[in-house]
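Hi support team,

I've been running sequence recovery on a batch of backbones for a student project. Most finish fine, but this one hangs at about 90% for roughly twenty minutes before it completes. I'm not sure whether the input is malformed or the queue is just slow. I've pasted the structure tokens below so you can try to reproduce it. Let me know if you need the job ID as well.

Thanks,
M.K.
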């Protein structure tokens, strides 16, 4: 097949790109900055991310993807054009691209993703579900006739899937993920500390002291924000237990969603999962104690995959090397017209 093989993990929080023969060549925040009036692109990725909360009215800083799907078509197209041009340069043949998507997207959303990718410069494009890519990237042999449960916790969605014999048997997707945790921390600080913080500060708190299981030894950090009452700058201390309290309701909903998938999974596959355990991937898997709490809530051993942040994009790289992985599951370079069904 002519053209460079490219795998894209098009996430709500970040874009990761794998290039055939090179590995992961790009990992940038899914953020774009442009002029408010003219719409001219000013920055993409990390430079745009650093502008969040600091931009004047003349500059708009946009996250063009929401809950794992495209919410701003023109901005997503500009962002991907920038990255594809950066990676591919002026090659004669356009790249063929595999793009990851949440398992619950509708056919309309699938066609939108394909439209964006082809408009951004891809010669051919196809889709693969994130849990399947995550399982491949985590080193799981997906072709064996036993069930494996993957819980892929990204920025906008958490995808839960049972995989067997090379395909997804049961799946579900909930909009409880990293961004929701950040917003919960932001609300908690405003309510109980009387301090307003930005999303970047909330994310930093989550990464440094966030936990899904109450730590045996409590840790704390100092953060900065603006006093909600006086409007003046203020530093405050927040502990890991407080962060757990802020996100505990979301964690409860997440674990219930996992239990819900287990309840509708056929008995033989549940038996396999009880033996093999639950595999956690994505940035949310790095939250302290996530595997321990998952095991406590489900009664099934859980483990964090090696390099959970990059499992999905690594999975696209494996799929690029072995296109039969896609062909066997009906993904291979379908055109938007071929994606039909009632779920529009």
């Amino acid at each position: 097949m002519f053209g460079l093989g490219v795998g894209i993990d098009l996430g709500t929080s970040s874009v990761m790109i794998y290039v055939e023969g090179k590995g992961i060549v790009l990992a940038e925040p899914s953020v774009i900055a442009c002029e408010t009036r003219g719409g001219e692109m000013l920055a993409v990725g990390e430079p745009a991310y650093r502008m969040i909360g600091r931009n004047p009215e003349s500059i708009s800083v946009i996250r063009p993807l929401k809950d794992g799907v495209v919410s701003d078509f023109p901005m997503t197209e500009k962002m991907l054009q920038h990255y594809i041009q950066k990676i591919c340069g002026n090659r004669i043949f356009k790249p063929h691209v595999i793009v990851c998507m949440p398992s619950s997207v509708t056919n309309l959303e699938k066609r939108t993703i394909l439209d964006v990718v082809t408009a951004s410069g891809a010669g051919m494009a196809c889709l693969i579900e994130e849990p399947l890519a995550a399982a491949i990237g985590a080193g799981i042999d997906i072709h064996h006739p036993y069930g494996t449960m993957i819980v892929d916790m990204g920025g906008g969605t958490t995808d839960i899937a049972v995989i067997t014999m090379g395909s997804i048997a049961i799946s579900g997707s909930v909009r409880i993920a990293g961004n929701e945790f950040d917003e919960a921390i932001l609300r908690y600080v405003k309510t109980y500390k009387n301090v307003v913080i930005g999303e970047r500060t909330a994310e930093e708190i989550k990464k440094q002291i966030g936990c899904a299981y109450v730590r045996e030894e409590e840790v704390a950090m100092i953060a900065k924000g603006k006093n909600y009452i006086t409007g003046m700058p203020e530093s405050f201390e927040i502990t890991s237990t407080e962060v757990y309290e802020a996100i505990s309701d979301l964690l409860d909903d997440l674990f219930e969603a996992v239990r819900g998938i287990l309840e509708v999974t056929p008995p033989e596959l549940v038996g396999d999962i009880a033996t093999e355990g639950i595999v956690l991937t994505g940035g949310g898997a790095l939250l302290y104690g996530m595997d321990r709490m998952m095991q406590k809530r489900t009664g099934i051993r859980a483990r964090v995959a090696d390099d959970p942040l990059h499992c999905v994009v690594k999975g696209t790289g494996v799929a690029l090397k072995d296109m039969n992985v896609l062909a066997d599951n009906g993904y291979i370079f379908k055109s938007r017209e071929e994606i039909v069904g009632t779920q529009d």
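--
Follow-up from support: It reproduced on our side and the slowdown came from queue contention, not your input. The radius of gyration is 21 Å. No action needed from you.
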